Amino acid sequence: MFAIATDMGALVLLTLLFSLSSAPAHGWPDQDYKDQLLSSAQLDKDWLISIRRQIHENPELRFQEHNTSALIRQQLHQLCIPYSYPFANTGIVAQIGSGSKPVVALRADIDALPLQELVEWEHRSKFDGKMHACGHDAHTTMLLGAAKLLNQRKDRLQGTVRLLFQPAEEGGAGASHMIKEGALGDAEAIFGIHVDFEIPTGSIGLISGPVLAATSFFEAKIQGVGGHAAGPHLTVDPILAASLAILALQQLTSREADPLDSQVLSITYVRGGSTFNVIPSYVEFGGTLRSLTTKGLYRLQQRLKEVIEGQAAVHRCKAFIDMKEEEYPFYPAVVNDDGLHQHVEKVGRLLLGPENIKRGEKIMAGEDFAFYQEKIPGYMISIGMRNEELGSIHPMHSPYFFLDEDVLPIGAALNTALAELYLNEHKHSILDPA
Ligand SMILES: *[C@@H]1O[C@H](CO)[C@@H](O)[C@H](O)[C@H]1NC(C)=O
Ligand SMILES: [Zn+2]
Ligand SMILES: [Zn+2]
């Protein structure tokens, strides 16, 4: 009892000291703040473009981002920004600010896709079969841009910003490895920006709650007994068993899923047999499962197993199901934090004007940003880069994907303001009992 009373007394005293010594809360920044930040970012535009083009020309696949990582470290070194390396093989965490709480994190992904670039332009990928077709070259550049801006303004930072340069977003769950290796540190919130070809450059798309799906993949093997097709009674036909299993699976989304929890179950290949008169001994098929809630995906995975095994058994076959976790790790759903939504919207309105804040769209793609959001509140923002004149009209993962580079300074400024203003608004949270 006594000890507790002492602690309470200390806390009250500390609170008192802090409220006396800390400067009065700054008001919400004005037009000057916005003009200054945006013009500083525009001054860096040529530098940003040159970095983005270097990364674009030299794409590296998940967990092999060695040159990309070296380029980032070299830039941080030149800017005199301290960083830790490596995280998750090639990842980097830079840190700017006071070193004390509150701490906020910004994240960029750095990996490219196994895709042949089909855009004919001067700075196309120099490596056949590899391309930055998801804009991660832009994300990396925008975060380096923010690093420079934050560093120029570090004296006014009311806490600490951690900048996460993360490998292997594309299927490698790089984020989960970053977390395991301590990349989040004491961060209490995290922001991530992804380019979006559907809304014009200069705008952003925001959506609170579920945004992107929890995703997983699977492969099933149905084992029967092969034999001559003229004597089916002497075989155990895996083709029939696989066919009925595939049909039965469709009922999981149509009959068992909550209609308000969007789910997808797609079978994307079937392999079995090779000729007209032989019943094969086994059939393989596989595909993907998605759900806007992580819980929904776990349930779908469980039921997928039960249905395939059950259907196989009915037809006297055996089923083997592999969720392919090694090659294609499970991703949780991306769920944007309601509290951070207010912050992002305010910052967006200030920086880009209310008319440029659009309602985001949910899609059933996955993003490993979700792993951070399982640990701390997080928010993913879509940043517009559509520009019809330039031909920046192609979706992510298209070999024709083409970035409007005007997005780079905007993204750098947005990252900066998100972190800086978050710290301004949360600088007292050091006293929160949590
Ligand atoms: C990485 O850098 C090395 C040395 O400069 C170069 O030989 C290699 O081609 C680069 N690889 C990629 C994927 O950019
Ligand atoms: Zn992608
Ligand atoms: Zn992406």
Question: CA-to-CA gap between the ends?
Answer: 21 Å
Major beta-sheet overview: 8 strands, mixed
* Number of extended strands: 16
What helical percentage do the residues reach? 25-40%
Rg, nearest Å = 25 Å
Oligomeric state: single chain
Bound molecules: 2-acetamido-2-deoxy-beta-D-glucopyranose, zinc ion
Low-confidence stretches: 1-25
In spatial order, strands of the major sheet run 1-2-4-3-5-16-6-15
Shape: elongated
Q: For the residues shown, what is the average pLDDT?
A: 93
Q: What portion of residues belong to β-strands?
A: 15-25%
Order of helices and strands: HHHHEEEHEHEEEEEHEEEHEEHEHEH
Q: How many helix segments?
A: 11
Structural class: alpha/beta
Give the key terms:
434 residues; alpha/beta; 8-stranded mixed beta sheet; 4-stranded antiparallel beta sheet; 11 helices; 16 strands; 23% strand; binds 2-acetamido-2-deoxy-beta-D-glucopyranose; binds zinc ion; signal
Description:
InterPro entries: Amidohydrolase, Bact_exopeptidase_dim_dom, ILR1-like_Hyd, Peptidase_M20, Peptidase_M20_dimer. Residues 1-27 form the signal peptide. Residues 218-312 form the Peptidase M20 dimerisation domain. This is Peptidase M20 dimerisation domain-containing protein. With 434 residues, the chain is an alpha/beta fold. The protein has helices spanning 2-21, 31-43, 45-57, 66-78, 136-152, 174-180, 238-256, 294-314, 338-352, 369-375, 407-426; strands spanning 83-87, 91-97, 103-109, 160-166, 189-200, 204-206, 209-212, 214-223, 227-228, 263-272, 278-279, 282-291, 318-322, 334-336, 357-359, 378-386. It has an eight-stranded mixed beta sheet with strand order 1-2-4-3-5-16-6-15, with helices on both faces. Helix 3 packs antiparallel against helix 5. The longest helix is centred in the last third of the chain and has 21 residues, at 294-314. It starts with a helix and ends in an 8-residue tail after the last helix. Residues 1-25 have low confidence and may be disordered. Bound molecules: 2-acetamido-2-deoxy-beta-D-glucopyranose (NAG) and zinc ion (2 copies). One zinc ion is lined by residues 134, 170, 396-397.
